Design the sequence.
């Protein structure tokens, strides 16, 4: 990156550092359980309007959309008609179900709060960059940008907000960048997933008088044993992981369990591998069916993986983000695959990536923290990506 440009970005990010920290303190206290993000959505929409945004839309899903148009003299040079959009996003929701104001404390170097890094600090960086572009539309270089604070990224949100966005605007989206996770991470390979609720039902009965009847807990445990230890499909095209993350069932110690359930998931960068693992689950379930035992499998989540479209465009797009992060942080980017909102455009063959914009640790715990000073580098990264001319990619 040109040293003068790097210095300008650093100057802008440093000048608004205290304002950014103050916004983070306010937003991080607002509860935002997945599928119940409306309070943060309202705050974000009101804040954007207060900064002078000409148009702010809150969708039925509670996505917040803020279109940013180029300066009139730049727009006149672009083709007429519906413009292609470069989308920049960060998610509103956090993993915790709190409905009361979230606890927050800080020391000289850090801010601590549930969800403060994942994804509140990244969202705040995106908001500060959006404020800058509201007042400096010439920095868009003639591009039409859509800022999105989206819902449903965590847990069983199943990327609800981003899926809704692409149903609404997919023909117009030229590229997609989501800001999530930590500085240094530049993720352009999607980890897809399949998630199921497996439920076993039996007649149940008294533990002594009806001994010998099928026990739903025992049958479920047998099924889980098979999921972990049966051979994997031959010729898997990519690595797969699988996990039983929750179990429940039965009523009391002296009753044969009549119902038991588990949550099960598989992950892979390959859609083909996920289909093979889904078929494996079906085969194991079918093999364990017997008289007096009902086994049901319900899909509770699908996150798509990568598509094979536009590999050249994707490579150029990912390289630009990685180079930007390296220039600003002085560190080699971490390009390990992950599951993020970028999964949706990647599955559609639209150039996309996920870029971290904060340093911190202990995400998905109530002790999560972020490094205050890291917001300067993070905002520099966000501003650099949002103000890059399209032909510079």
Sequence:
């Amino acid at each position: 990156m040109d040293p003068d440009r790097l210095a300008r970005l650093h100057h802008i990010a440093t000048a608004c550092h205290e304002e950014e920290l103050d916004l983070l303190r306010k937003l991080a206290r607002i509860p935002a359980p997945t599928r119940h993000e409306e309070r943060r959505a309202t705050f974000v929409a009101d804040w954007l309007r207060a900064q002078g945004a000409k148009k702010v839309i809150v969708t039925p899903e509670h996505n917040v959309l803020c279109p940013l148009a180029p300066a009139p003299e730049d727009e006149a040079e672009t083709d007429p008609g519906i413009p292609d959009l470069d989308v920049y996003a960060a998610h509103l929701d956090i993993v915790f179900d709190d409905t009361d104001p979230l606890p927050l404390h800080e020391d000289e170097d850090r801010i601590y709060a549930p969800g403060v890094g994942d994804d509140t600090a990244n969202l705040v960086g995106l908001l500060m960059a959006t404020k800058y572009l509201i007042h400096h539309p010439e920095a868009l270089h003639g591009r039409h940008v859509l800022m999105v604070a989206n819902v449903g990224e965590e847990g069983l949100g199943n990327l609800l907000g981003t899926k809704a966005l692409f149903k609404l605007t997919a023909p117009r989206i030229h590229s997609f960048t989501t800001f999530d996770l930590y500085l240094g991470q530049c993720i352009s390979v999607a980890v897809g997933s399949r998630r199921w609720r497996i439920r076993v039902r039996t007649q149940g009965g008294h533990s002594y008088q009806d001994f010998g009847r099928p026990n739903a807990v025992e049958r479920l445990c047998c099924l889980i044993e098979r999921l972990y230890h049966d051979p994997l499909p031959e010729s898997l095209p990519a690595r797969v992981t699988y996990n039983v993350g929750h179990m429940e069932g039965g009523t009391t110690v002296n009753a044969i369990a009549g119902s038991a359930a588990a949550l099960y998931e598989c992950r892979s960068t390959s859609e083909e591998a996920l289909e093979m693992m889904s078929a494996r689950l079906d085969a194991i379930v079918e093999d364990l069916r017997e008289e007096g035992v009902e086994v049901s499998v319900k899909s509770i989540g699908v996150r798509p993986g990568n598509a094979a479209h536009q590999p050249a465009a994707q490579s150029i797009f990912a390289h630009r983000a990685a180079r930007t992060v390296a220039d600003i942080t002085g560190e080699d980017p971490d390009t390990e695959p992950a599951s993020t909102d970028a999964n949706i455009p990647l599955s559609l063959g639209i150039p996309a990536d996920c870029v971290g914009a904060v340093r911190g640790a202990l995400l998905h715990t109530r002790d999560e923290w972020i490094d205050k000073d890291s917001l300067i580098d993070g905002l520099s990264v966000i501003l650099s990506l949002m103000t890059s001319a399209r032909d510079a990619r």
